[in-house]
Specification:
Number of domains of chain A: 2
CATH superfamily of the largest domain in chain A: P-loop containing nucleotide triphosphate hydrolases
Helix content of chain B: over 70%
Distance between the termini of chain B: 33 Å
Shape of chain A: globular
Radius of gyration of chain B: 18 Å
Number of helices of chain A: 11
Number of strands of chain A: 13
Strand order of the largest sheet of chain A: 5-6-7-3-8-9
Strand content of chain A: 25-35%
Helix content of chain A: 25-40%
Oligomer: heterodimer
Strand order of the largest sheet of chain B: 1-2
Chain lengths: 303, 248
């Protein structure tokens, strides 16, 4: 299968400084592809070169077989874009915005259905300026989908949404993908990327620091899990030391902490069961994309 | 309806939702001509105004004020905002170019200016028996060139200003000297020859001359029309070259 997006050596410079520095990647049809990285890593610039909003200085880009640099018009009929930090005219009504944008595309989606799906049906006659941040954000996602696009670019999808709305948005994006649409997601939220993306590129200073599935990134970053519990029967720490995968056992007051790699947690639970020790307050602190990110890039998101 | 038609329709609606703009574009010139028209004797030819009927002169002034305020302050303010808010950027990733929005807006505002001019003509005719422009062809050409030159100048202000605030500021800086030199504050008949000459080279100055003359039945001097055409072409070309669709 030919990739929907094929990027080779994409470079964009500002004042001689490469903001995007030789990025290569490809995205398959129906994939949700994440671009993760700290502020200033070049995520938005890179994606805007793909969208045809900025002109790249070097490299090759093919989206749906089209070059955004020379074939922008045809490309824009087939992609949908949600940009970061854009506004509409304050006095434009939600319905008017959707009708207007629908008129730009050869085969638009039904805007009423989009209104419903994105929870804006009751806001149809509300002016843009009167919408809350979350409603504006949902309107922009709806506008990105209005043209029945084959590829959707979403830049900071859930910015300004409350936790409930974020979760609902993730479900809807998963549905969008299930209908065969390819999604490129720019984000700096680990949980969002981990939840939604099939593959992730971590961008750092304009370069790809790592590219893999979220699970693959976590694995390649290594590290250990920790489990913590309160045994309800007497248990000597030493009895867990020999369990496969366990690297350390400690006791903190009434709680036992076991550190290990691989599938050690199942082995520990089996050992506890064999010894007929019931445990309470069991917690497993897994490695997450968060810690993998720090391990891979040597820094946290905010720096 | 295609993208451009829709854009023009929507921008037209948005224009009608701006109460302040409506008062400025339609209310102000009408209030001006009615206010002056009620002055006793003002509906006779005035010596200090090259024998133009006072109310007719004020009506021409009203036309000039509409063209100048829309072109020099309205155009840069709205386009500066559209750029700063990312409205133009957002259109840049649709099959419709942001240029379509720009042209749709200019079309809507030009239409509003034409309607406002028609209203002024109707009001002074019905209320004060001021004749309609005696040379309608020249009058229409004068208004059209006035719109083109002042809108293009406003467009240039929006092109070179980095922010919406800056664009609006430049617009106002252009607006007041233009109004002054064109003879809106006091008639060019009372100006020194040098000042009058400078005023003739401004888009508003030549627009007001051409509008006044054609209203009275005099063929406007070709240099007035030429000066407006030159402003339209030069400012338009510079805008095409320097207009930024994207906030830096």
């Amino acid at each position: 299968m030919t990739p929907v997006i094929e990027v080779t050596g994409l470079t964009k410079r500002y004042g001689g400084q490469a903001v995007v520095d030789g990025i290569s990647l490809h995205v398959e049809q129906g994939e949700i592809f994440g671009i993760l990285g700290p502020n200033g890593a070049g995520k938005t610039t890179a994606v805007e070169c793909l969208e045809g909003l900025r002109r790249r200085d070097a490299g090759q880009v093919q989206i749906l077989g089209l070059d955004p640099k020379t074939d922008g018009h045809r490309l824009h009929q087939r992609i949908g874009v949600q940009l970061q930090e854009t506004q509409l005219q304050d006095k434009l009504k939600v319905r008017e915005a959707l009708e207007l944008y629908a008129s730009f595309y050869p085969d638009p989606a039904d805007w009423r259905e989009l209104l419903d799906r994105w929870g804006l049906a009751s806001k149809s006659d509300t002016r843009f300026g009167k919408l809350s941040g979350g409603q504006k954000q949902r309107l922009f996602i709806a506008l990105a989908l209005i043209g029945n696009p084959e590829v959707v670019f979403l830049d900071e999808l859930t910015a300004g949404l409350d936790p409930g709305a974020r979760r609902a948005t993730w479900d809807l994006i998963a549905q969008v993908r299930n209908s065969g649409v390819t999604v490129v997601l720019v984000s700096h939220f680990m949980d969002e990327v981990e939840e939604l993306c099939d593959r992730v590129a971590i961008l750092e200073r304009g370069r790809i620091a790592a590219l893999d599935t979220p699970a693959g990134l976590v694995d390649s970053a290594g590290g250990e899990y920790r489990m913590r519990f309160q045994p309800m029967a007497p248990l000597h720490e030493r009895s867990l030391v020999g369990v496969p995968g366990v690297t350390a056992v400690g006791r903190h007051g009434t709680h036992v902490t076991v550190t290990g790699t691989g599938d050690f947690a199942s082995a520990v639970t089996a050992e506890l069961a064999r010894r007929q020790v019931v445990v309470a307050d069991l917690r497993i602190e897994g490695r997450s994309l968060d810690s993998a990110y720090v391990a891979l890039t040597g820094r946290t998101m905010d720096t | 309806m295609n993208g451009f038609g829709r854009l023009a329709l929507v921008e037209g609606k948005l224009f009608l939702r701006e109460k302040a703009a409506l008062i400025g574009v339609f209310g102000l010139p009408v209030a001006l001509v009615i206010g002056f028209g009620l002055i006793p004797g003002f509906s006779n030819p005035q010596k200090g105004l090259s024998d133009q009927i006072g109310t007719e002169y004020i009506a021409a002034l009203g036309v000039a004020i509409v063209l100048a305020s829309m072109g020099l302050t309205g155009v840069p303010m709205v386009l500066g905002q559209y750029r700063e808010r990312g409205v133009l950027r957002r259109l840049g990733v649709t099959p419709v170019r942001p240029l379509s929005l720009l042209l749709a807006d200019l079309t809507v505002w030009a239409a509003a200016a034409v309607v406002s001019v028609a209203v002024v003509i109707a009001v002074v005719r019905l209320a004060f028996h001021v004749p309609a422009p005696v040379k309608p062809g020249w009058f229409i050409l004068a208004v059209a060139l006035g719109i083109a030159s002042l809108f293009a100048t406003g467009l240039l202000a929006a092109s070179v200003a980095p922010t919406a605030r800056g664009a609006a500021g430049i617009g106002w800086l252009l607006f007041f000297p233009n109004m002054f030199l064109a003879g809106v504050y006091f008639p060019t008949e009372e100006m020194s020859a040098t000042m009058r000459q400078i005023g003739n080279f401004t888009p508003l100055g030549s627009a007001l001359h051409a509008v006044r003359d054609s209203w009275m039945g005099i063929d406007p001097r070709p240099e007035y029309l030429g000066i407006m055409a030159a402003w339209a072409l030069v400012a338009g070309a510079l805008s095409a070259r320097f207009f930024r669709w994207d906030q830096a």
